[in-house]
């Protein structure tokens, strides 16, 4: 394993997992252009993911899952996105959420155990639908307009959720809703029913195959035991590193495409490939500087989170830094790759223009750049100040 992309593979077990995911990515890259053009959900990819056991990667071993750590999750998400960014980001929400539930203990034990067994047995997936048109990103603290009203044996939920990634394939999902009688926000596990409608609104510039449509709840019933208790511990939200891992995977794919182009493309006015040109070498060097710096920060953050369980809440500024640096550097890498390839990089018949569109979606995934910078400022100002 002498390739640069394998630098952070730590042992034989991870190597075998990486090779398995690379085989999936090789399938997905053949389908990516079609799903991107049609903005169609890649059900075929998810059938392969289920068959390969990818959906249970973060399920605890006691329930039949692999129970991988954060470093391992980042490693595989990056590799999957090398083949198809949309599929990697979409499945990342599932494996990331299960990881979060596992580490934080925010779900009731019985409810979580039922979910885990269903993931392993049936390939069930999960995601949380929290975004709404009126409130924007839930990470900014807006109160949901989705309302939960007490009903016999449970609750009735009414509202509309946006950016509902994985919505075409889920038979259950978590919804955030406001409870007027308690003047509080809570989360509920909703099962698909006739009171749940999928509206296919997703027609975006990038990440077109994530199935991030709108979901309408019209008095959807949720039994009392499916209200999420909201307890557990603060795990620092390390699971969100599945997001920058995805965008780094896209950047790695763009980087490798540009390198192969530079090694092989020889215009008729020269007797050497353009990789010999000083200007091209300078662009490659800049590409490597951005890419290698970002991966170092990303995996260092994942490793610290794994090794410092008691310190995870305090790692939030570092985790945010990893997302910011990785996502913005990934954008820079793809931009440089396109400069190396030149005008043909804009062709819809080549993958670079899809990488260019997909990688920019990272700016709109949590945590946002402004939030990261504010958290870093707060951390700096409190550094060394006695409580």
From TrEMBL:
GO MF entry, a single one: flavin adenine dinucleotide binding
Keyword Transferase attached: no
Ranges of residues in domain Acyl-CoA dehydrogenase C-terminal: 245-362
Record domain Acyl-CoA dehydrogenase/oxidase N-terminal: where: 11-110
Pfam families noted in UniProt: Acyl-CoA_dh_2 (PF08028), Acyl-CoA_dh_M (PF02770), Acyl-CoA_dh_N (PF02771)
Keywords: Flavoprotein, Oxidoreductase
Superkingdom assignment: Bacteria
Keyword Cytoplasm: no
Record-linked SUPFAM superfamilies: Acyl-CoA dehydrogenase C-terminal domain-like (SSF47203), Acyl-CoA dehydrogenase NM domain-like (SSF56645)
Domain Acyl-CoA oxidase/dehydrogenase middle: 130-218
InterPro entries, per database record: Acyl-CoA_DH_C, Acyl-CoA_Oxase/DH_mid-dom, Acyl-CoA_Oxase/DH_mid-dom_sf, AcylCo_DH-like_C, AcylCoA_DH/ox_N, AcylCoA_DH/ox_N_sf, AcylCoA_DH/oxidase_NM_dom_sf
Name of the protein: Acyl-CoA dehydrogenase
Organism of this sequence: Paenibacillus agaridevorans
Lineage start: Bacteria, Bacillati, Bacillota, Bacilli, Bacillales
């Amino acid at each position: 394993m002498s390739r640069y992309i394998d630098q952070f593979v730590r042992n034989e077990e991870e190597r075998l997992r990486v090779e398995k995911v690379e085989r999936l990515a090789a399938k997905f890259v053949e389908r990516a252009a079609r799903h991107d053009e049609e903005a169609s959900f890649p059900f075929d990819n998810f059938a392969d993911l289920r068959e390969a056991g990818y959906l249970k990667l973060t399920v605890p071993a006691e329930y039949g899952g692999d129970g991988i750590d954060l470093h391992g999750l980042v490693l595989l998400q990056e590799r999957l996105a090398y083949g198809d960014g949309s599929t990697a980001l979409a499945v990342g929400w599932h494996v990331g959420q299960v990881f979060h539930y596992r580490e934080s203990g925010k779900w009731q034990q019985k409810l979580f155990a039922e979910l885990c067994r269903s993931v392993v047995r049936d390939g069930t997936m999960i995601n949380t639908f929290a975004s709404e048109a009126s409130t924007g990103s839930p990470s900014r603290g807006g109160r949901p307009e989705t309302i939960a009203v007490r009903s016999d044996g449970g609750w009735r939920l009414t509202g509309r959720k946006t950016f509902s990634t994985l919505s075409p394939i889920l038979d259950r999902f978590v919804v955030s809703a406001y409870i007027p009688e308690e003047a509080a926000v809570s989360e509920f596990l909703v099962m698909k029913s006739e009171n749940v409608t999928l509206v296919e609104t997703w027609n975006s510039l990038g990440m077109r195959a994530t199935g991030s449509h709108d979901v309408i709840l019209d008095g959807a019933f949720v039994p009392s035991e499916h209200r999420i208790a909201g307890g557990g511990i603060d795990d620092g939200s390390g699971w969100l590193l599945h997001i920058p891992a995805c965008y780094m995977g896209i950047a790695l794919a763009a980087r490798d495409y540009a390198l192969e182009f530079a090694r092989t493309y020889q215009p008729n006015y020269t007797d050497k490939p353009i990789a010999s040109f000083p200007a091209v070498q300078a662009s490659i060097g800049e590409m490597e500087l951005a890419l290698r710096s970002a991966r170092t920060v990303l995996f260092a953050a994942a490793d610290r989170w794994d090794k410092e369980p008691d310190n995870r809440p305090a790692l939030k500024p570092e985790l945010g830094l990893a997302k910011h640096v990785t996502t913005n550097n990934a954008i820079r890498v793809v931009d440089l790759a396109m400069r190396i390839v030149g005008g043909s990089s804009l062709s819809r018949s080549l993958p670079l223009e899809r990488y260019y569109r997909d990688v920019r979606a990272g700016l709109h995934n949590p945590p946002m750049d402004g939030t990261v910078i504010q958290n870093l400022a707060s951390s700096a100002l409190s550094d060394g100040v006695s409580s």
